């Protein structure tokens, strides 16, 4: 085909079009590469940040691991790791090795559970069964704390607080155990309990001494009255004895007389009339009658009742018995009634209970109530000495709180107490009286709380009386009395 200008021009157009296409493709290719490079640069920047973050995390992890290891090695508490399937010890710090009497961590790890716990725990369950329960509880809750009796390799046991914390190691659940030996705390608690029992016994003896003095005073009052009656009877019987002698003499005279008996009979009639008057005088207006003898008999019976109350209260028995509250209050008031009368203090008792039948330790309850009444009386006498009141009054009320509980309220118009002293009233040894021991109210509080009850005090201030409220169950729990 011949080459013409038109063909060259056409070819030139085609080449220009191809050149433009190639140029466009070049431009597009350059933009793509540039975008790819920018994307790679951004991704490299992000990777660098992630690497730095990872390095920081690894550094922090290393620091935490160092801190944990330091804590693990230097802790005063025993720290161990236990793991499935047998849940034996896998690691133990120096405190754990020392606590269990081991020579090395290997000895601790190789020790069997039976070597580190007694066969039975205090609740009667086997250590093996109870350990399974605590481990399962810790795995479910994640954190579990309980008391446990552990055992050293030499066989000595000791009380401890155990805390189990769930952890994941290499995707396996393990438990971190922290064990705290509480032997010193338990011993201190036992010592405190022994001291409290001694304080209670001292308070009990003080209450018995007070009760004994009151009992002897009551017996003295009864005997004084009976002595007067006996003296009166003695005088009357002495007169009858004299009359008997005179009659005997006249009988002898009649037997020996040989003279005419008419004058003698007249003399005897005169004498017998006189003897009648002597007998009437001997009998007196009141006479040696059944009432007088009955009063003496009642007095003797009353002495027997007082002694019986004293004997029962002197025995430190805490067994609960069934009794009537009103009768118990009467017995208690009889021990201190003479002091009420002598001090001219009015005493009122109001029973608002639906049922007065109680099942409680009767003798300690008598002692407690006697202490409260005595304290109220002394508080009233203190105010009387100051001249702030002329008439003392003590009010005892029993009322229902619920179907299972009742309340005893003792109120007086005595010296009262400040707000500060109200807070310390049940502290052992605290007293505002010169001759007080400070054990009476403390002992009463211990007794009430031992039955699951409550005791509270209230006063409007010094010189404004005191109110004591005691809440008790109708029936004592046998476990509380054990």
Q: What can you tell me about this protein's structure?
A:
This protein is 59% helix and 18% strand. The protein has four domains: 62 residues; 107 residues, PAS domain (Beta-Lactamase, 2-Layer Sandwich); 113 residues; 165 residues, Heat Shock Protein 90 (2-Layer Sandwich), CATH 3.30.565. The protein is elongated. The strands form three sheets. A five-stranded antiparallel sheet has the order 2-1-5-4-3, with helices on both faces. It has a five-stranded mixed sheet with strand order 7-9-10-12-11. It starts with a helix and ends with a helix. It is built from 14 helices and twelve strands. The longest helix is centred in the middle third of the chain and has 74 residues. The protein is α+β, with helices and mostly antiparallel strands. A hairpin with a 4-residue loop joins strand 9 and strand 10. Helix 6 packs across helix 11.
What is the 3D form? elongated
The H/E string reads HEEHHHHEEEHHHEHHEEHEEHHEEH
Head-to-tail CA distance between termini: 132 Å
> Strand tally, please?
12
**Could you say how many structural domains there are in total?**
4
Task: Name the CATH superfamily classification of the largest domain.
Answer: Histidine kinase-like ATPase, C-terminal domain
Which CATH architecture of the largest domain? 2-Layer Sandwich
- Gyration radius, to the nearest Å? 50 Å
Low-confidence stretches: none
Major β-sheet strand ordering: 2-1-5-4-3
The biggest sheet, with number of strands, parallel, antiparallel or mixed sense and barrel status, is: 5 strands, antiparallel
Q: Class by helix and strand content?
A: alpha+beta
CATH topology of the largest domain: Heat Shock Protein 90
Helix content: 55-70%
Q: What is the CATH C level class of the largest domain, in words? A: Alpha Beta
